[in-house]
């Protein structure tokens, strides 16, 4: 309450960087102090809108005393070095997923993070969605008995551009990774991964040897089975549903209705599709809560922020899914 | 776009005054310039939060050049004089409903307003709710054929304090009046009113000879029948539904779900009640749209703001409903 | 179980007579023994299908020893005399609603029925619908606290032929009467009636001075308000919903879905309208249960069959509704 | 219409045999002529209820002129020999699934069936469910564009007795086989199978090395992916849902509601679980339609009955699923 706002250095001013900037400005516990982007116009515009000083050089963020905490929303290949820099500077950091597309680089960074004692959070924002969180908490409270099956339907509105597909790391590392983390939110210890991918519609996926449609099956150490149904497009809109099934019943999280109006006629009952546009709209509350939780982490308070090891685990699972899809074999994983 | 923001003088800083202040601060087309409230601490706090200068004297708002437009959110007995002052000062005005509880005072003001050529809008915010508006527009577009029956369910979460009931003008003038205006939003020309009121639970209503439960039936000049089902309490939460029935089908507006999570077990399927807390939450978008539409009106642009005559019509209908409930007879009305 | 089946005499082989014949044949506790219809071909065909002997003369049913109980499904004007004959013959009788369109004839019959000690049931089949019954029982069990508002939406798929409208007794005695009985199923003691009727679409109603659209408002002696929304047509299909609202919550009975399939596309989510064709389909279970309950009544067991006085009360309410609609005044009723 | 009813010989009078007997008695196109069961009391009771002569010897069914068609509802190990006998006798046959648990015996029978020219239908009753059929037809009509993902949730109310599990052939051959056929109803040409099984709750499954929880993933030759989520129990009741997803939208088949009544209170909205008890109730219409379609097949008319090769394909897929679950590898199949 009486605490001074945390001074945040934001690196990267793309779509998600904008979301973080807006939320920092709105959260009384934080203020936007430095905005860094080599595309300096983006930094300048963001600072004008949400406060702070703009710079084209991310290294400014790590200068002694410049900021209290760092949020990394720059392109994936920069994440590992920027996390390392933040850790070295002793600055708590929230980094967008994935940590990297190359698990070797993540493993190399791991002991550095573990040894430094500096909090590192990874931006798995869906953990903060009030509906998924409520479902998870109710499962954890035993409402459905033992969790036996978790079914995640996760479909994007439209496939990304072909050039993005080419550098995305593939559907499992780029898109499924969010669902793999959600699986671990309910069942942290995943032991086995199977996956099937196929190209049904997207020329970009075909061109780059990627899939646009995929189903991933996980077995947790408890025996519970997770099924993730992914598609890179959805005529109906952004489709994000979860069903947790247990011995005593099930909990379902539906899509949000986009209108309260329905029409009933002789032939049909019609309503607007129950979907919001895309992740910035569907998860706007989740991004704000993610920031609030990171502020706690940065202050040394108890926090629900996903950790560096959560980021690593999701990438290990995505790698296993890709290998299973490629080779046709179930893949055992060890997340410890 | 390039227009200067309209300078708004706000009179009254209660619940709804706060909503207007927040929306004025957030709307680039307006700025809060003067905040007037005889309870000057309220004015000061609001100005500190949303901008402008605080004053304890509403007359300051009407000083030449002080503001460009006025919003009246003060207690009902002050409305008529403040509207008159605004009109005299040539200032466009948005006044909360009702104009007054005494139709005689409204009729006396009517020619003043009509002759002045100054825009006067009344705060029937529900007309701006995106869902009701969509339903009305679809009815107007002929989607259900002729509108034959309009059924409005409107229940507040909890009865107001007994002292408020005593000065409220009664359930029809205080609560039903919103639904009467909604009826006119779909069917402007109402010809007859019947009403039944009863006391089922509220000691305050009993004490003041008021009802806590009421059903009002209207007949439009088209022959269509409107039914308004009101209750001063609702265990389930704020209940605001509309069903428009016509020869080709019907349009329904449901309550908003408060959660996307549902539980299915051996005995039942459960979800959170599909209701938001109360009008400030349910109609937050509507208040913002109401302001935007008033800014257009104040600028002389085409506007959907309800007029002084809409405010008068709603009060005439409320009076008729009260009389019908008291006397047990259907009451003819002439809204012209 | 070991009881011999009750031998039933059925008078009238129209639509509802057919339903009773089918149910009698299917119920092990009854057998169709005599089928009487002046249109003797109807009687013959029904007997061939469901058992028993056909006759063109209803008087055969009342011959000593011919049958154990009587079901009257002949035209309304015959009901009073046939009930009187059954009572005189000492035969338990189930008569379709209404008892008569003329309350004077009903009042004249009333002491005859009361004095005879012969069970007379009236065919208000909706009381036996499992869903309405469950809602009523849950209200009676206090699940929603005191019942404060009961809202009944009741719309037929299509208006009857003009010639039927002419002899129907009007929408209140012909159609609303079912809903008036349903109101009394929840709130037996109705004290006041208001009604509004209008012609919106049906030439037959206009020709005969009847209404095709009506809203009836009742006040029970408890203070609770009942609202009945009627239409003689519904593009969506047979529309039969109830909402019981009380201090602790509400119970709603929805229409039955006609399909489990729904389509979600870019513009809309579509399903089949949640309605069944008409009363024979919607209330098929109710007719079977009605018969079962009448068999109990005829055997002298405890039974939930609506009584002669329930039939009289519904007609008194329908008369009051018609008068209120005609005269524009609330009408007090005394059902004792 | 004018055709004589087909004389049916029914072998087996367990649960499903009873269903067939009832439907034969109700269908004017068929009559129950012979009922065979080594447990002759079952045969006698069934014949008493539904017609025909009882016998303890199934061979009686195949005597020249005894019947026109055969329905086999006896235990699985008898199916192959009884189909062979029917084919040899030239009698059209409807046999319950599975043909056998041993694919070798099915392959041995295949040329016999193929060469005989006698219609052999397999009892995949779910193909005849009006809702699944409508969804399939709408997919086939192109309503959702290319079918990209088919997701089947199929959960039984409760695990079978341990002794049954021991002889069931395992969850894939016993339970999933219905869903595998449903997958082929939408996508006949399945090319690959992956499966994961686990024991979460059932001691019988653990004892017999079977699974009680399984997810099976299929890839069709079109590239489309089918996901089948199975559980041997469901606290909520029999759970049978399908979601067909394509480029233009999706079609969903929901569970049937068991009540039209819902309660809304301060804490929750509650309804009965939307599930019917078990397959005899959920698929009662499907069994009747299955019989009707078999009667057409037996008469040489065009028919939608699943064929012997459909029965073989489902078993091949179940075998592949079992192998994939056991070995952890994706299994390619060739259903031609």
From TrEMBL, chains A, B, C, D:
NCBIfam families: myo_inos_iolG. Pfam families: GFO_IDH_MocA, GFO_IDH_MocA_C3. Residues 6-123 form the Gfo/Idh/MocA-like oxidoreductase N-terminal domain. PANTHER family: BINDING ROSSMANN FOLD OXIDOREDUCTASE, PUTATIVE (AFU_ORTHOLOGUE AFUA_2G10240)-RELATED, NAD(P)-BINDING ROSSMANN-FOLD SUPERFAMILY PROTEIN-RELATED. One of its GO terms (molecular function) is nucleotide binding. GO terms for cellular component: cytoplasm. GO terms for biological process: NADPH regeneration. Keywords: NAD, Oxidoreductase. This is Inositol 2-dehydrogenase. Belongs to the Gfo/Idh/MocA family. InterPro entries: Gfo/Idh/MocA-like_OxRdtase_N, GFO_IDH_MocA-like_dom, Myo_inos_IolG, NAD(P)-bd_dom_sf. Residues 132-251 form the GFO/IDH/MocA-like oxidoreductase domain. It comes from Brachybacterium phenoliresistens. The keyword Cell membrane does not apply. The lineage of its organism: Bacteria, Bacillati, Actinomycetota, Actinomycetes, Micrococcales.
């Amino acid at each position: 309450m009486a605490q001074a706002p945390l001074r945040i250095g934001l690196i990267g001013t793309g779509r998600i960087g904008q979301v973080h900037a807006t939320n920092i400005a709105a959260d009384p516990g934080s203020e936007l102090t430095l905005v860094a982007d080599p595309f300096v116009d983006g930094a300048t515009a963001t600072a004008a809108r949400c406060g702070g000083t703009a710079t084209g050089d991310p290294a400014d963020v790590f200068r002694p005393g410049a900021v209290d905490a760092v949020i990394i929303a720059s392109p994936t290949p920069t994440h590992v070095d920027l996390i390392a820099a933040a850790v070295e500077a002793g600055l708590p950091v929230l980094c967008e997923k994935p940590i990297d597309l190359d698990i070797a680089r993540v493993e190399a960074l791991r002991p550095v993070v573990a040894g430094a004692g500096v909090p590192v959070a990874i931006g798995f924002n869906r953990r903060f969605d009030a509906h998924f969180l409520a479902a998870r908490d109710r499962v954890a409270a035993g409402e459905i008995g033992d969790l036996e099956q978790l079914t995640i339907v996760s479909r994007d509105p439209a496939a990304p551009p072909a050039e993005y597909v080419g550098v995305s790391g593939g559907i499992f590392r780029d898109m499924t990774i969010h669902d793999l983390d959600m699986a671990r939110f309910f069942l942290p210890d995943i032991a086995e991964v199977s996956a099937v991918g196929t190209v049904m519609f997207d020329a970009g996926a075909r061109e780059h040897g990627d899939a646009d449609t995929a189903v991933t099956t996980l077995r947790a150490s408890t025996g519970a089975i997770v099924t993730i149904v992914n598609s890179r497009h959805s005529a109906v809109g952004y489709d994000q549903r979860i069903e947790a099934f247990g011995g005593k019943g099930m909990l379902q999280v539906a899509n949000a209705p986009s209108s309260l109006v329905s029409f009933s006629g002789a032939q049909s009952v019609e309503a607007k599709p129950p979907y919001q546009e895309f992740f910035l709209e569907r998860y706007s509350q989740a991004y704000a809560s993610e920031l609030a939780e990171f502020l706690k982490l940065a202050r040394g308070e108890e926090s629900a922020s996903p950790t560096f090891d959560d980021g690593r685990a999701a990438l290990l699972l995505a790698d296993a899914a890709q290998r299973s899809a490629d080779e046709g074999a179930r893949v055992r994983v060890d997340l410890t």
